[in-house]
Amino acid sequence: MCILEFQNVHRAYGQTEVLRGIDLQVRQGEVVGLLGRNGAGKTTFIKLVMGMLAADKGQVRVFGQDPRLEPVAVKTRIGYVSEDQELPPFLRVRDVLDMYRGLYRNWDDAFAVELADRFELSPGRKIKDLSRGQARQVALLCAVSHRPELLVLDEPAGGLDPAARRDFLETSIQLLNEGGTTILFSSHHMGDVERMASRLVMIHEREKWIDSELDDIRQGYCLAQVPLDAGLDPERLLTNPACLSARNHAQALHAVFELNPEACAAVLEREFAVAGAQCRTINLEEMFIELARRAS
Amino acid sequence: MITPIILRHEALRRLPKLLVITLATASLVFNLIAFYDRGRHDPGEIMSGWVVIAVQLCVFLCGSLLLLMPEGGRRCRPWELSLPVPGRLWWSGHFFSLLLGGLALMLVYSLIPLLLFFLDSTLEGPLFDGLVLDWPAFLWRLWGVPVLIYILTLDIVALWRPSSAHPGREDGWGRFLFAALTGMALLLMVVSRFNLALPLTAVLAALAVVLGRLRVPGTLSLPAESSPGTDAGDWSKPAAASRGRRVVHWTVMRLLFKFPINWIFLLPFTAFFGLLLGGFNPVSSDPDALRFTNVAITVYLMVSAAGFFTEKLYLVDHLPVARRTLLAWLVWPSVAATVLGYGVGQHLAEGRVAGQEAMAFTNTAEGYGLKVPPRSWRVAKGPETPVVTAPWGEQYPTQSVPVFKGLPWRLYKPFTTPETASADFVAWQIARAAADVYGADLPADDIARTYLRTDPEGRVAVREEGLTLEADHPGLAQQSAGPVFPFLGGGVIVLYLLCLAAYFRLLRRQVSVTRQRLAFWGLMGGLLAIHMAGLGTYIAQLTDDWIVSGFLLGLVRTWVGTTTGANLAAYGVWILLMLGAWSVALQQFRRLEPPRG
Amino acid sequence: MLFFVDPQSGVPIFRQLMDQVKLQIASGQLRPGDELPSIRSLSVPLGVNPMTISKAYNLLVHDEVLERRPGRPLVVAAMDGGQFVDRRAEQLRAGLQPAVNLVRQLDMTAEEALDLFRTLLDEDPDAKSGPRPAGKD
Known about the structure:
The complex is a heterotrimer.
Chain A (H helix, E strand, L loop, with lengths): L1 E12 L2 E12 L3 E5 L6 H9 L6 E6 L8 H5 L2 E5 L10 H11 L5 H10 L13 H13 L5 E5 L7 H16 L4 E5 L3 H7 L2 E6 L2 E7 H6 L2 E6 L6 H5 L4 E6 L3 E6 L3 H12 L5 E3 L3 H12 L1
Parallel strand pairs in A: 3-7, 3-8, 5-6, 6-7
Antiparallel strand pairs in A: 1-2, 1-4, 8-9, 10-12, 10-13, 11-12
Helix pairs in contact in A: 5-6
Chain B lengths: L1 H6 L2 H29 L4 H26 L18 H37 L11 H25 L13 H19 L2 H22 L27 H14 L4 H18 L16 H9 L1 H7 L11 H33 L4 E4 L4 E4 L6 E3 L6 E3 L5 E3 L1 E4 L7 E4 L9 H16 L5 H8 E3 L5 E3 L6 H4 L16 H18 L6 H27 L5 H16 L3 H28 L6
Antiparallel strand pairs in B: 1-2, 3-7, 4-5, 6-7, 8-9
Chain C lengths: L12 H14 L12 H8 L3 H13 L3 E4 L2 E5 L4 H26 L3 H13 L2 H5 L8
Antiparallel strand pairs in C: 1-2
């Protein structure tokens, strides 16, 4: 079942184009990591999903419906957490839960209380007296406790301490375990993206630049550690078109190639007469940096 | 050293917006004062009008402190305490910023009435004929005491918890003091011997400033934060199922409406103008006079909540609350206030009308003739109005005024009684007028016998007790003017919804908050301009409030009629129009994308 | 038994899990017939998408390292002696390859390297690393 569908979606802000020709389909159960530099259009994308913005051209469908035409029907099935979300500061935690209970049909009180206990939230405290991380935890709690079919997270872990981030992660995974939830999240914490995402979508220069399974993408890049005694310097390596970057490190020369590790080792041997170079897949953070730099 | 401290103060940054609001408020207030003073020509009485202005100045100045003070009276922000600035300097900067800001507001506030008064006295206008004022004394009274009271209020602000960077927090004391001082101001103005009050207040103020400054320590301290605590709390009690919807409603209302300004200030103001629409007239006896003058300003007040509402809409946009529900929650308080005000106004007007005679006969230096309510005048097209002919042939032209200077329509009085008329004619006219006003059939002979005499100059006059028709005929009651509400009160509501629709249309795309504010204040400014233009036509004598009333009520009577069928039809049409306007507003609201910074 | 994942290492998480399962089998911590923890019970403590764990398990089943039984958790597949030896060799090879590269880089002879290797193996593990970790025997 197609949970989310974008068909040739365009959106501009005034005269500035923000998204151009975005096509996307997300099926049930997928966990999609939305990547992009700051200001690339991730938040606009998410707001289009939520129906908070209208597409200038093209179609947005969530659960098969247009979120602009059926806002309540769509939003009742979505759990939304955003970095700049503001909970009503004058409400107490227990009141916030009451409010969400009144808004969403499938509210699971037992689950909500279990999460509140786990996050150590006290019901009587006002939102304005909570730290930012605690307030975000309340928002997350409310977003998941009504068992949403789609969880939309816009940089949910921004500014949270590692323990709070881990709590967040575990709660999302718990939802995945219990079946059926689709997750769309944008984040700068590559570790979290590595753990959670099965699929990556990267937005660059207003267009969808990457859209594939995480492992497939990873196969396309590798980090080569060339021993220093091979007599190479970074500039020579960069002459190869597949080499994205090269840097001197303490014990070896580190270079990122747009090849899988085996092909990379072969190239190093063939072209640069290097034997004994270690080629391994790179982690997501390095890959993001290289992609972002190469793109600009 | 103190200049940058003052310049960075939030009060001065808010000042431009507040100056604009002050101009609007001053115009509004002066609206009332101008009408209040119109019937009075004795300078002493006019002075009392200016006293009212002065009192309002005090109230306004004290209130402006609330508007100017950021974040509960913050003297400096928490991070600013890390700067090498002594506590006394923060304290002084705060004090002088508020002082300067308040004085600027006061200047603008008093500018409007002074300007109009000055224009009026130089141009010999209708408002304050032949008034000669002792300017220095007058200015001293207008400005002197209020400013000193303002400084006194500021002193309280300055003295209160001088050691703290946030004196206003955690306490209602500040607000209580404002209220107390405002009451004191009123009392002083009413009861005072100005000559004593001024030096007294001056000395008090100066003492307070010195005392305050001395008490400021070297460094200001931050207020204690509420302790985070690890009270785990008890989750075992489940809430009632119905509580959810109530919390949703109340939370959304609180998020999207500016409390307490909205509920304590704007809604009562709206209801007050509803009163005026309904016919309550605080300044003169004629219930119809002010009704049609205040349409634009009532819409202005109703629309006023929409700006903050759309600005804060992003807070609830991601929640599954229908736009229809949100629009209903925006609209119902204003509509309820207007309708309530209208109903109460109508009731009060009826009470007033019951207490005084609708018709009168004047025989004074100002004028001679039968006076009937404006709704009994008639509209005629063309420069000539019909002559009135008695059955026996006595004929006179009717008294008339142009509906609007330059336009052909005229409002004429069919019950004109010129000075040369005979007693029979006058009695006949009175009988006709009574039939029109009360629907009663009073024989002309009785009227002639009971009420008419001849005055020393030989003109027909009414006896000393006056034309006491209602007193003498207990069953007499003024006829209804027909279904005025669908046009007036209902019309205001329809206009309100259409204004909302127009405003929402401008926010169809996600605009910046600045543009949203421009759109909103543009709309409000437009409404205010329409209102001022209306007042301007009165001041320029292009038309007058009772003429407008007479004309419009006449239209209602002529085109709609006063029968039950007509009433039902009018209400029916109004309901249809309202539903249409609602759906237009809703359609535009649905397309609205909440503005973001 | 413990698994851990390092999302920063550059190695795909499913591969890390596969390698750890194989290591534990090769070292005898997991024996044929032992049940593996369910995906659900692993995903939250590890902080990993359950589909990743599922992928690792599926690939291990495909490689005939694990065995599926209908309606029951996955178990370690039966191995004969030869397979056990192969598995151990596979693990050691992965660990030795970097050392071999280093030997080449340092320009040492095979004899020097092997001598050093033997010395390290002969060193008393108790004296070096302290008490044995509690847990598996």
